# Entry
Amino acid sequence: MPTLLTLLDQAFRAAIKQAFDLDAEAQLAISQNEDFGDYQSNAAMGLVKILAQKTGKKTNPRTIAEQIKSKLDLGAIASDISIAGPGFINIRLSPTWLGKEMAAIAQSDRTAGRLGIEPAQPPQTTVVDYSGPNIAKEMHVGHLRSTIIGDAISRTLEFQGHKIIRQNHIGDWGTQFGKIVLAIWYLVMAEQLHKKETLATLMDQMKSASDAKDETLKNQMIHSLAVLHQQMLDEDTNGRVIFEPSLERLHLELAPLEKVYQFVTAVTDAAAAETELIRHPDHRGHSLAEMPRLFTTFIQNPDDEKNKQERLAWSKARDATLETCNEIYSKLGVRLTPADVRGESSYKDMLAQVVADLEADGIAEKSEGAIVVNVTGFEFPLIIKKSDGSYLYGTTDLAAIRYRVRELHADRIIYVTDARQQQHFAQVFWTAEKAGWAKKGTLKHAPFGTMLGEDNKPFKTRSGDTVKLKDLLDEAEQRAMKVVTEKNPELPEDQRCRIAHAVGIGAVKYADLSKDSVSDYVFSFDKMLALDGNTAPYLQYAHARIKSIFRKGGEPPPPGAAVYLESPFELALAKHILRLGEVVELVARELKPHHLCAYLYELSTRFSAFYENCPVLQSEQPLRDSRLALCKLAARTLELGLDLLGIEHPDQM
RNA sequence: GCACCCGUAGCUCAACAGGACAGAGCAGCGGAUUUCUAAUCCGCCGGUUGCAGGUUCGAGUCCUGCCGGGUGCGCCA
# Structure
């Protein structure tokens, strides 16, 4: 069945048409204040002007409202239609109608599992681009929001019946490449030549020198590294003797790689690295700072047999990264699989053509040796080819759009990335639309703000490092475990673990999803794991309480049980259950899952009020079955809603 | 300097293409347990929506100008 909002909208439009022979907006809204009613139409006030233009005289909006009301046919839906204030038309839903509706939804859920929500028409093929971790880096809290929000959006649109193609646009290409290969070379060579300790000491001291801003010590470390580098190079000048064979056997772990990679970055960015020369029999001297660039030849010619070492190192780094990411995804219950990975590197062969086509169309032009697109409304252009001939991430984004539209047949593409990239995407979208690669309005950026610590500064550890996602999730689970054990010590340990997992991870995800994504958000374990208030544990607890009724009461309600809504608590619960479809549409339209969170929280409070005031198992038939049916529906609504958010709902807590 | 985002109760957040008296939670205060999970429920307290104009029957929401915070601004991603 269509949502109630849609039904009412149609009825009001028809009434307006009949009364004034006009096709006008019904201006339907959910009443903010329940004293007025459940739904309202605000059309009458707006019609004053339109009618005045048509007839030449002004009509009082209350009179207009009266005329609409007289033509309005809501069947059995409303128990009261009243006009209030300047001309609001208030609708109060009929408890009898609602009861029948509840019974019908319960019935349809048995077969379709959709709680009466119709799939969207027509279904659209939608690419959702989210998560996007970088190669050789552990996922940190910055990736959390994209991953969680992107997954919730994907699940919601998927439920609506759209074909969702998840794309994990990982950062596996570009200028950081040379540093990664160099880092692996250090790692492997130090291991093979028994210099691990030396390297480790260097790295530690370099870190403390940086932290203490001690330039002298830093320069010493850079010099020592140059010496070490030279020693290792002299043992194996072409990499064939030690490096390549060891690399083939190596099972690379992400954590040590990342550490060395950061070290290499710190070293090569330092001025002192420019003056430390490394000698090589086949080359003139190169400075330490130039080393990463020597390894980047692979970027230009990845298929050249000469670049076998680099290719191998690159794929090891990639595998190590993805392995760790997949662990996180599975911990988070995020539906991203290796099959969804299509990183920047997969567009490398399309970049030249992208630039050539944009140039041929007159959209791109040469400027100071680079090729740029001058985007209307922007002071600075989008650079798609650097003066040294290499491409940038904007070029890759454009290639990806073309690929997604042409090969994946995307009707629309949603980018879940942080808000800082807003201008970048505005430029990229403008270019793609101008080139005719995507229809206007089909490229959507769902931006989100920065995650802040409780000090309102970007979320970092006490020592100022970025927080690793894994550590954060582990801590959430541990904290949840403590609470579960405190509340329910008698449960077996493995069950407590499962509950702690659901609660801890659920809390982290819910805390993020329940805030409007565009603003920055303050991360607090204490708040997200609180058992009351707008938190995942509160919703999960409400769900567990319902399940408990069925455990105690045995039988589920018989199919087709009539639903009676006599108490205000039952009525309030039923009205809310009916709104899920409207909320799903809202989330899909705005790409903002926090609306669904607000809805589920409200549902839980209404259920709790019902639970306190309306005994279920002790009540007489047919009320008992009626209330059981309502419980069943409330549980199903919570389950479906939490599923769309990607949050677990254990039966027991 | 230019551009984008944000500014709502002590704190964390809502307000669904402008709608009625701006709502929740936390914290604070006061209550409720012979009954299906008290990880709960009920009540009270708390506001010049950063400021000043404007558009509108109606503005937290749209426009203009300030103030405050964040972010981005040709060859990083």
